[in-house]
Design brief:
CATH architecture of the largest domain: Sandwich
Largest sheet: 4 strands, antiparallel
CATH class of the largest domain: Mainly Beta
CATH topology of the largest domain: Immunoglobulin-like
Distance between the termini: 104 Å
Number of strands: 11
Strand order of the largest sheet: 3-2-6-7
Number of domains: 3
Number of helices: 8
Shape: rod-shaped
Oligomer: single chain
Structural class: alpha+beta
Length: 296
């Protein structure tokens, strides 16, 4: 009986004022006669009679039984004999969910979403907490005449929206969110493995550790590697090739080479850029060069 709005098929105390012709509250009304109508049916005498609250307040209450509240629309009238012909009317709609029920529904949805979001404080969880806070505020600060039924309908629509979001996530299977994620991502942490691969450089040591040997290399792969080495134009690497490298040996064999006053010069493929030079020594007894010094 403490919740609002009035609940169908549950005893309820309805409170109301009685006014005179001037709009003043009528205190000490006598000859009270209260009647109740259920869902537009004929009025019948109420089980109890209206009682004034405190002394000379002009405000009365009528205790309705469970049977008298068993309808969607409950209407009461309370007539007085003194002063004469004064009637107070009350209409109550019991088809709207009570705030306590709505709060329980919100709490249930909040628990489901908390389980999915693992209490991460995400937007959806925050929004639901805000809805719960609004519900508590409505329940505490309700002012008569504010059309609570419309406000409750809006909150019910919010629940339907949240329920639809949760249903979409769970695909109506009733499982947790983890149940919808491939097992490899949940248990095997594939993301961590990929990150480790991205961060690890391939070194000689790692090749040895992983048994990456010549025997493990397919014959066609080895042939393709050899073909690439033999066919690659050395102008692609000559600018950065070390002096004592295969590139230098090939340049000396196929590129421009000249004797410049006792110095052997080896040029790059453009025939202009000097790649290496060697000092030439001669001995009249030999025919005619006996040595090429280390390239510089």
């Amino acid at each position: 009986m403490a919740d609002w709005p009035p609940k169908k098929n549950a005893a309820f105390n309805v409170h109301f004022p009685i006014y005179d012709n001037d709009g003043d509250l009528v205190s000490g009304a006598a000859g009270l006669d209260s009647e109740v109508s259920i869902d537009h049916a004929q009025f019948a005498d109420a089980t109890a009679e209206a009682t004034e609250i405190a002394t000379s307040s002009g405000v009365y209450y009528l205790a309705l039984t469970q049977a008298e509240m068993n309808g969607d629309i409950i209407t009461t009238i309370t007539k007085t004999s003194t002063p004469a012909a004064k009637t107070a009317v009350n209409v109550m709609y019991t088809a709207t969910d009570q705030l306590a029920d709505l709060h329980g529904d919100l709490a249930t949805v909040d628990g489901v979403v908390d389980a999915i979001l693992v209490d991460t404080g995400t937007t959806l969880e925050t929004d639901i907490d805000a809805i719960l806070a609004d519900t508590n505020e409505l329940q505490t600060d309700w002012v008569n005449g504010g059309r609570l039924d419309l406000l409750v309908d809006d909150l019910h629509a919010d629940l339907v929206t949240v329920d639809g979001i949760v249903d979409s996530i769970l695909v109506d299977t009733g499982t947790t969110l983890d149940g919808r994620i491939p097992a490899a991502l949940v248990g095997g942490r594939m993301d961590a493995s990929v990150g480790a691969i991205a961060n690890d450089a391939i070194t000689a040591a790692s090749i040895d550790d992983n048994a990456f040997t010549a025997a493990a290399l397919a014959a066609d792969a080895a042939a393709e590697i050899a073909d690439a080495i033999l066919s690659r134009d050395i102008d692609q690497v000559e600018a950065t090739a070390a002096l004592h490298s295969l590139c230098t040996a090939i340049l000396k064999a196929v590129a421009r080479v000249r004797d410049n006053a006792g110095t052997l010069e080896v040029y790059r493929t453009n025939g202009v850029t000097l790649h290496m030079s060697q000092a030439v020594t001669s001995d009249a007894a030999l025919d005619p060069i006996d040595e090429l010094a280390v390239g510089v």
